[in-house]
Amino acid sequence: MLVELRLRNVAVIESVTLPLAAGLNVLTGETGAGKSLIVGALGLLLGERAAADRIRTGADRAVVEASFDVRERTAVRAWLDERGIDADDELLILKREVSAAGRSRAWVNGSPVTVGTLRALGSQLIAVHGQHEAQDLLDAAAQRDTLDAFAGALDDARRVAEAHARVLARREARAALEARRQQAEQRADYLRFLVDEIDAAKVQPDEEEALETEHRRLAHAEELRSTADGIVAALQGEHGSVLGRLGGVRRALVQLQRIDPELERVQPAFDSAFYGLEELARELESYGADIESDPVRLRRVDERRALLSGLMRKHGPSLVDVIATADRAREELALVDDIAVAREAAERALREAEHEREAAARALTQKRSQAATRLAEAVTTLLPELGMAEGRFLVQLPALAEPGAHGAEQVRFEVALNAGASPGALERVASGGELARVMLALSTVLARLQAVPTLVFDEVDAGVGGAVAWHVGALMRRVAGHHQVLAISHLAQIAACAHHHVVVRKAQAAGFTTSDTEALSGDARVLELARMLGGDADREVSRAHARELLHRGAAVSETPAMPEGTTRRTQRRGKPG
User: Is 411 helix (H, G, I), strand (E, B) or coil?
Assistant: First the structure.
């Protein structure tokens, strides 16, 4: 439970320490004294967005710190241990600091943590029920989540959502397959023509270069042959040929070597040149003999080149791309040919997913149906105590045409607040004050479900007074039998039901407005109740009235009057849900 809350430089608060105890803690004070600031400070510990405007004028930072008794919170200590955060056996200290520059830092037991970690931890320790939650109660998703929590069906709801996601994914896959099939069928004639065209050409990836070489040879056959023959004649012809003249060079070289044997070293160079030219002459003579003018072959080569060039213009830029285009076209055609098999597989997968979703939705529906009756009866039981004597609370479950992400039905909270009135949606039937009281009744019923040890009720008593205020206080005191409760209230009847009463007072210090808190007991508490009643706290009659309230508040039962979901009233009327 929350043992102590400390605020420093938060809005108008310079420094406040709020001591809390087990049971029902009520926080009172005049309007503007700073009660709402304390709830806002708790919001910082729950990970709400930090803003620099929360810092007291003239201060460089605001600090909120809370101490929790976690001796009985083994799950919280295990959670901390999993994240490597030191956990004392008794006290857990959360701290949040906001600087004037807007930066925020957080600590748990002195260890720095992220705001996300602080938020996750705070949600296990405190739950805040404020006036805004009455408006949240109008939201269909909030109503659905409330019923699922009451039914213990949150895991069932998650399974339905997951099954629905699989249905959508498989429908999308089937639709994509069908779109591809339709597109392929529309292109099928073209694709078949394309494949036949490329296959008929029997394209080879490297033949373009070979055809280019053959084309040049055939187109210049006469020039190639005559040029080769001319070179052969120059090398080994009868008159003045290169090889003939080299014979004279050979004889002169032999003459030199006889005189100077040292020149024998150049003989290999001469021999290499001579024999190389002989080999060149033989190669060119053979080459020239092989060159023939072949107009027919040249025409065929040009036709082949034109065919390939056309294919590359349409499907290229290269022959490799042309072949790849044919392969892709065959794959598309295969989709058309094999679509029956693929479609059956997609339909089978979709049916399986839909069956899984239907089974999950049926299980969720069963739990919701059972819980709807119990929740309606339990809330209806409390409405007379809150000034709605003929009030009925109902949980309607209109079926959907098809299960969706949230199940096979809607969840709708309705009320009938007057005798003979037909049930209607909360936003149509209930006024602001009535809506707040319905929310309080619902919160009271749900309180036992909440694992968090501390519940905060922020002025949920708005719009009530008199005898109804007593019943509101009694409800909070009952909830405090199994939770620590902190209620911010302006009603003396509720404050009189408290186990622990703290007042917030506004004061002036050094020219600045500030707030302070004081735990009240004895005469001090009597005086605060007298003030809240609107009388003169200095008059004995006002103080006597306050003492009477305290006596009556202390006598309020802290246990539910009847078992949840079974009342004399609902037995008389039948099940309202």
Answer: coil
